[in-house]
Specification:
The protein is α+β, with helices and mostly antiparallel strands. It is about 20% helix and about 35% strand. The protein has one domain.
């Protein structure tokens, strides 16, 4: 499997999904909105050429969950996406 071009931390603030990494932040109430926000953030960062594809790993920050819940299927919260900038 190809490695990620960008590793991010994924959280939920009670209203929106939030992705952060290296000064980039994206927010959305659902996955589609989050992905579009991430696309705009990547394009605006100047790090990626227009039209390039960026493979992003979103690793959920389990410290935001209650301890008793962390044991259940932690991998379900991790996400891979490929964004065309």
């Amino acid at each position: 499997m190809k490695r990620a071009d960008l590793d991010t931390v994924l959280t939920h603030d009670g209203r929106e999904w939030v992705v952060r990494a290296d000064g980039i932040e994206a927010r959305g109430t659902d996955w589609g909105e989050l992905d579009e926000s991430l696309r705009r953030a990547l394009a605006g960062s100047g790090r990626y050429a227009p039209g390039s594809r960026v493979r992003v790993f979103m690793g959920f920050d389990f410290e935001t969950l209650p301890r008793w819940l962390r044991q259940y299927h932690y991998h379900y919260f991790n996400r891979w996406v490929e964004i065309r900038v």
